[in-house]
Each structure stands twice: as structure tokens, then as C-alpha cells.
Amino acid sequence: MNWLLYFLIGFVATTLGAIPLGTVNLSVINTTIKQNSNSAMKIAMSAGIAEILLTLFALHYSMTIMHIIEDYKWIQYGIAGLLFATGILLYFKKQKKLHSDSSTRKKIFNGFILGVFNPPVLVYWMLALGYINMNTISLNMTTPLSVLFLFLLGVYAGKIGTLYGYSKASVLLKNRVGHIANAMNQLIGVLLVVIGIFQLSKLLFF
């Protein structure tokens, strides 16, 4: 039953990290409300691939990255500033009408980009993998491929499952609140600004 354990650890770890509202979640909600659930799941599937890449990156470079970030404070300030600036741009961006026939390739690209360029998720995986290695199973780039495959399959399933849940929940919001789509870019913008301010505050005062 070890194979099931590896899958479940990946699934649970990803689900716990994906439940908090983030840019990918909001993008899925936004697309579901403006278009449909099928369009939103195209974003979710590519975001799942991005999650796997971040997990592999964290497995391979977790110690090195943590040392670099600790040694070079300007990187931390840069990340915080980028999040803040992106949030401001999204908040004040004028809403454009989206059509349901927008290309599949664009949805997949957007989901992948939102998933990959997500520093909080990368930090989460570094912490989560540290906990997993200390308390459950050993995971690193020397782990047998069969084990890594099952773990990463759980990661993908956890990401897709969580985003699917957000998509289905947003259908209820769409039926009850007709104009909620107009606030989605602002919600994403506020979230990024808050994250940026929080990281900047940690750098300056802690």
C-alpha cells in the first residue's frame, strides 16, 4: 500500500496549499463566471503542470534557494515589489469583455504562467517538503522514479481537484450575483498587493 501513501501525501499537501485563495484560484473563478467551467478547467490543467514543475524545483533547489534568498535581501525586496506592482496594475486595469470563444492555447498559457510565477507556492513547497521529509517519507531527486511519479501524480490530482471545486462553487455565485465578474481583477489585484505588503513588512520589521 506504499504506492497509495505516496499519492495521498502529494494529494493532501497540494490541496492544503491550494485551498487558500490565490491568483490561480481567482482566475478559475473569473473564467467560470465570465465563460464556463470547461474553459476554467483548461486553466486548471495547465496550472497543475506548473505545480508539478514548482514541486520538482523545490525538491532540487530548496536548500540552495533558501540560502540565496537569505543572503541577498534585494531578491526578497524585488519579489515583494513585483507582487505589489502587479496587484496595482490589475486593480486599475479596465475590464474588457471576454468571449467564450477565446483560444484554448491562451487559457492554457495563462494558467501555466500564473502557476509557475507564484513565489508563495514555491516557498510553501519548500516548507512542506521539509516537513514531509522529517515526519513521513524521504523525498528528493534521488528518490526512485516510481515513488516520485506517484507523489507528483497526487500533486497534480490535488491541484486539479481543488480548482475544480472552486469552479463549481463559482457557478453558484454566478447564478446569485450577476455582476461579480466585474470585481475579479480587483480582487486579484488586492490579493497581490496584500501579499507584497506582507512580505515587505517582514523584511523591514522582522
Question: How does the SSE layout of this entry go?
Answer:
Blueprint: H1 2-18, H2 23-34, H3 37-71, H4 73-92, H5 104-116, H6 119-135, H7 145-176, H8 184-205
Helix pairs in contact: 1-7, 2-3, 2-7, 2-8, 3-5, 3-6, 3-7, 4-8
Descriptive notes:
This protein has 206 residues and is mainly alpha-helical. It has one domain. It has eight helices and no strands. It has helices at residues 2-18, 23-34, 37-71, 73-92, 104-116, 119-135, 145-176, 184-205. α2 (23-34) crosses α7 (145-176), α3 (37-71) runs parallel beside α5 and α3 (37-71) crosses α6. The protein is globular and about 45 Å long. It comes from Spongiivirga citrea. Pfam families: LysE. It is found in: Cell membrane. InterPro entries: LeuE-type.
Helical segment tally? 8
The backbone outline, from C-alpha atoms, is globular
Strand content: under 5%
Strand tally, please?
0
Largest sheet properties: none
The helix/strand series, from N terminus to C terminus, equals HHHHHHHH
> Rg to the nearest angstrom?
18 Å
* Average pLDDT score: 77
Helix content: over 70%
Structurally, how many domains make up the residues? 1
The helix/strand class is mainly alpha
The separation of the N and C termini measures 44 Å
Q: Poorly predicted ranges (pLDDT <50, ≥5 residues)?
A: 95-101
Keywords: Cell membrane, Membrane, Transmembrane, Transmembrane helix
Pfam family, one: LysE
Protein name: LysE family transporter
Transmembrane segments: 6-28, 40-62, 74-92, 112-132, 144-166, 187-205
